[in-house]
Q: What sequence folds into this?
């Protein structure tokens, strides 16, 4: 999303003075654009190890677009290439199982025209990723995310109840 990419560039500017030379931010609509073409047209070099950072995206995509993205990254990424993304677990769309905070987030995203659509059973996601040639390095659930990234914070931010972070590597 253009606004998300602008925010990322702004954060990088404030944090490290700009976009590092080894980082390429590529605008892509994963539902309609050809990711392979987008990567190759922006200097991606198949055969060289790369790191793909894909946060805040899978929630809003249809399952087929997620699988297509994973397939293309697996096909173009050299062995040792890493991929990190976050995802909702399979309980995220069951109103009886999610918190009021989660319900509010989903309501807001629907109102902005980007409804949350897709979640995964964590173990099944790992199995699917392995079929694409990825090995799991780490798959953090909400409790582990809370402990690692939100413990001892005074700003009242907390991990979402259904959010997971996964780090995989191309075998």
A:
């Amino acid at each position: 999303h253009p606004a998300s990419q602008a925010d990322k560039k702004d954060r990088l500017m404030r944090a490290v003075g700009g976009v590092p030379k080894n980082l390429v931010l590529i605008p892509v609509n994963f539902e309609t654009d050809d990711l392979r073409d987008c990567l190759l047209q922006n200097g991606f070099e198949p055969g060289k190890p790369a790191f793909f950072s894909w946060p805040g995206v899978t929630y809003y995509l249809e399952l087929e677009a997620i699988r297509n993205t994973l397939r293309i990254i697996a096909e173009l990424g050299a062995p040792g290439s890493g991929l990190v993304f976050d995802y909702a677990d399979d309980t995220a769309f069951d109103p009886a199982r999610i918190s009021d905070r989660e319900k509010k987030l989903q309501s807001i995203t629907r109102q902005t025209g980007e409804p949350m659509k897709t979640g995964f059973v964590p173990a099944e996601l790992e199995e699917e990723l392995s079929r694409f040639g990825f090995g799991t390095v780490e798959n953090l659930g909400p409790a582990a995310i809370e402990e690692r990234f939100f413990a001892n914070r005074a700003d009242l931010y907390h991990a979402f109840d259904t959010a997971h972070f996964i780090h995989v590597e191309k075998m």
In short: Strands lie at 51-54, 82-89, 119-120, 134-140, 163-170. The longest strand covers residues 82-89. The chain has a mean pLDDT of 95.
